[in-house]
Each structure stands twice: as C-alpha cells, then as structure tokens.
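User: quick one, sequence for these tokens?
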C-alpha cells in the first residue's frame, strides 16, 4: 500500500503542482491543463498542440540528452496512467494527507481557490485532452519552432511559413506556403487564441509573433498589426493582473533587418517589442553560401548594431556542427570573430544550437556530394567549447547569456 505522507500540493500564482516523494511531479496551469511532469528521472512536456516530449539522460560518455515524441497510443496510455496517479494524490490530500505550500501572493489565495483549481484539474481526462488537441488545430497552423526563452510565450501567427524557405539545413516550414494575414484575419485569430486558452493564458509570459518572418511586413502594416494586438492585450513589465504581457518577441531574418533603419526599430520598441532573434548560423561567408543562407556575416552584424542602437535586445542563433568536418575551423574562427564584434550585453542571448541533419534534406545531399562528414557528439561539444572560450566581452557583468538550444526539445 502506498504511503501518502510524502505528498504535497504546491501552488504558484499561475501553476499548481501535485508532488509525491520527489519521484513524481505533475504541473498544471490555471485552466487545469497538464504542461509538464516528472516521473522516475524522466521529464515529460505536453504542448498545447497535444504533443508530449519525453526527455532523460543516460550515463554513457558523450551521450546527448535522450529526447523523443510519444506516439499517439503511448500518449493516451501515459495520460491515463498519470491522471490516475494525480487523482489518487488529490483524493489523499483531501483526506488530510500531505501538505500545501503556497509560493508568493499567499494572501490572495484561499481554500476555495484551491478547491476550484483541483476540480478543474480533475475535469480533464484522456478524451478531454484529445478534444483539446483538435481545438488547437482549428486555431493554429503547426508552430514549428520558438527560441527556448519563449517556449511559454503566447504565439500569434500573423504570418504563416517562411518567405525564403530555401536554407539547406531547415525543414521547419516546407509544409506550407508563406502568407501574411490580413488585419481582419489577425483580429479573428487573436479572438480564437484567447477563447482556446481561457485561463491557461495566465501561464504565458510574453507574446511571440510567428512564423519565421513576421517582420517581413512593411513598417506601416506591422505597426497597424501591433496596434490591433494592443487592443487585445495589456503590457506590464511587472506582470500584473489579468493577461498583461511582459513584451513582444519575434524572429528576424537579415533581409528584413537590412530594410529597417534604427528609427524603425525604435518605433517597434515603443510598441513593447523587446527582443528579436536572428538566425546568424555562422560567421563564415563561404559556409553561409554553402547552406543557401541569403545573407552575409557583415550584414548580420549591421542588423544587430541597428537593433542595439534602437534599444532592443537580441537573440543570436549559431548552428554548431554546420559544415561538418570540412568547415570546422573556419566556422569556429569566423563565428567567434563575428560575435566579438557585436555590441552584445547582458540583455542579449547567444544560442548555440547543435545541427540535426534531417534525412533526405538538401543539406544532407549537399554534404554527401561534397564529402563532408557530420561531427560526432564529442566533436560537437568540442566546437561548443571552442566558441565559448573564444568569446570576449567588456566585463563579466555585461556579458550576454550563452545557452544551448536543442531544437529537439521544442513543443508548443
């Protein structure tokens, strides 16, 4: 018989966690949706799309984190089993077992609030999650990727797809044509997103304008869309009550960035745009040309300088392993030199993203034809270390955050 004395209900302003003895944790948002769980050393992340990603570590030397997407039948079995365990823990808690811990804003949280939240969690079963997945697909096209610090953003798809969509290493948007939504479509999309999320919206810390090239829009049109967004959401740096957001974020390609002056970016900042993410990939122009990237390293530097001059922060994405063994040294040398020229500070992020080669991709075919060998896991880690060790900043207090960006972990 299970000992329920080690269970706990942990409550934060926007999430509730059901825990038992350090081996089991399941976390839910204010609508009662599961969004993450931990069981016996494995982490599970459920996206609004219904996808569940499992992550765990193995003790083998140089072994990468193990990551996989649960198949549909596996997902149903996992949810049924997990929700059964959650129901048992909640029932035991109601009988007086375990303890309650409230983190922050304790005075605003009552026993009645807790009971309502627990009832919402218990109302979700496997069938409810399946219906929720169908609802998601009626609101969104597939959301292919976000930067890691934006995984809990509220995504608004003001565009669909990628206007370039020819980079050899990328297949994120090959399933759709690029399209810019009209102002009326954006209004309807916002209304549908808010209705779908309900109280889950309180877990979302920021707004992310998707898909890959939202800022390809002409400045006047983009500003009008930002006005529509501001009609629907409030923005509060302190994340106050309601659905206040901390800011607006988006990807930016170099082509779109070169079309905007510093003053244009400053206008976006006045509309609560806070950080833009630039897929620089490499500082080596020959490698950029090899992977069909439509920009140069100097153009990327120019765009970053404009963004910083306008008061915006920057996310710079570098693809580790790009070009394999043939480009190893040039990729490291020129990427380090480029990053060291950028006026980055503590408000910025450098993402080092390991390249994952998609079977049958343009990159795989070009690399094979050129005799380029992919890097081993040990070589990838060595390249990451070389890049990190080569970076120089004015002071440790002003250095940007440097973080690993494993695209396999993304789920929305």
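Assistant:
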């Amino acid at each position: 018989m299970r000992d329920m004395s080690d269970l706990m209900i942990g409550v934060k302003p926007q999430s509730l966690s059901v825990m038992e003895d350090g081996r089991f944790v399941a976390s839910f948002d204010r609508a009662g949706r599961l969004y993450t769980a931990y069981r016996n050393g494995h982490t599970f992340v459920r996206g609004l799309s219904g996808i569940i990603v499992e992550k765990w570590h193995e003790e083998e030397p140089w072994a990468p984190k193990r990551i996989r997407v649960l198949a549909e039948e596996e997902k149903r079995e996992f949810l049924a089993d997990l929700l059964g365990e959650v129901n048992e823990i909640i029932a035991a808690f109601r009988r007086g077992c375990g303890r309650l811990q409230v983190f922050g804003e304790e005075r605003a949280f009552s026993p009645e609030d807790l009971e309502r939240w627990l009832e919402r969690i218990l109302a979700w079963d496997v069938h409810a999650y399946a219906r929720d997945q169908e609802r998601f697909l009626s609101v969104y096209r597939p959301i292919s990727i976000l930067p890691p610090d934006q995984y809990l953003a509220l995504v608004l798809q003001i565009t669909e797809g990628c206007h370039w969509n020819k980079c050899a290493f990328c297949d994120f948007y090959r399933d759709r044509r690029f399209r810019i939504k009209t102002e009326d479509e954006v209004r309807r999309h916002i209304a549908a997103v808010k209705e779908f999320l309900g109280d889950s919206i309180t877990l979302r810390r920021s707004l992310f304008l998707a898909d890959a090239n939202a800022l390809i829009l002409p400045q006047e049109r983009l500003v009008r869309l930002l006005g529509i967004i501001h009609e629907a959401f409030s923005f509060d740096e302190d994340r106050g009550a309601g659905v206040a957001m901390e800011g607006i974020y988006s990807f930016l390609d170099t082509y779109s960035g070169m079309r905007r002056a510093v003053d244009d970016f400053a206008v976006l900042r006045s509309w609560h745009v806070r950080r833009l993410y630039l897929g620089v990939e490499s500082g080596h122009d020959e490698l950029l040309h090899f992977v069909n990237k439509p920009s140069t390293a100097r153009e990327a530097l120019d765009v970053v300088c404009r963004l910083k001059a306008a008061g915006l922060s920057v996310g710079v994405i570098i693809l580790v392993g790009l070009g394999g063994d043939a480009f190893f040294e040039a990729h490291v040398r020129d990427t380090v030199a480029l990053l060291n020229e950028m006026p980055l500070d503590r408000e910025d992020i450098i993402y080092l993203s390991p390249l994952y080669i998609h079977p049958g991709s343009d990159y795989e075919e070009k690399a094979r034809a050129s005799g380029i060998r992919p890097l081993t896991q040990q070589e990838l880690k060595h390249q990451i270390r070389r890049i990190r060790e080569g970076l120089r900043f004015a002071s440790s207090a002003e250095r940007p955050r440097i973080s690993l960006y494993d695209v396999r972990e993304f789920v929305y």
